[in-house]
Every structure is written in structure tokens, then in C-alpha cells.
Amino acid sequence: MLFIDIFNAIANVVKNNNEDYIYAKSIEDTWEQIGLDSLDTIMVFVYMSDVYGIEDCIMKEWVPKNIHEFHDLLMANKTKEPQSVEEAMSGVK
Prior knowledge:
Layout: H1 2-14, H2 38-51, H3 56-59, H4 67-77, H5 85-89
Helix pairs in contact: 1-2
């Protein structure tokens, strides 16, 4: 699933390419299962909202408990959708 691949690529950047990052295998995974703390999660939200063209004011209202809820919020509010991980990562630093 492209969404999980993009999510993992961004989360890996947020975790500074840490070898201890546990890649999400499913949108049912929770933040705790993949080792993202609250700051990591916020950073993933910021990058992912940018990738999917979502305004900050909308994203700031979200409190998803897992990747599935986050996915659903992104899909419901997106104004663009990357066609590849490379395209998604082109603006991520």
C-alpha cells in the first residue's frame, strides 16, 4: 500500500534514519507499536499533511489514535495525492 510506504519513509526521516525505527506493517498499527513518541507523531503529521496538501489549521485539530484513523483523516481532507514514494519525499527534508 503506497500510503504505508510513504508513512514509513517520512517516519524514518523523523526518527533520523534510526535503525531502531519499527516500520509500520499495517494501517492498524498504533504509534506505540512502531515506536513513535508524541513529538515524532506531530512531525509525521506535519510532513504528511504537506505531502497530501492539507492546511495546518485542519491538521492541528486531529487526534488520531492509530495510523488507520490518521489515514482516514488524510484521505478525507487531501487536496493532492502523491503517485510514488519518491514524489512524496521530494519535499521532505
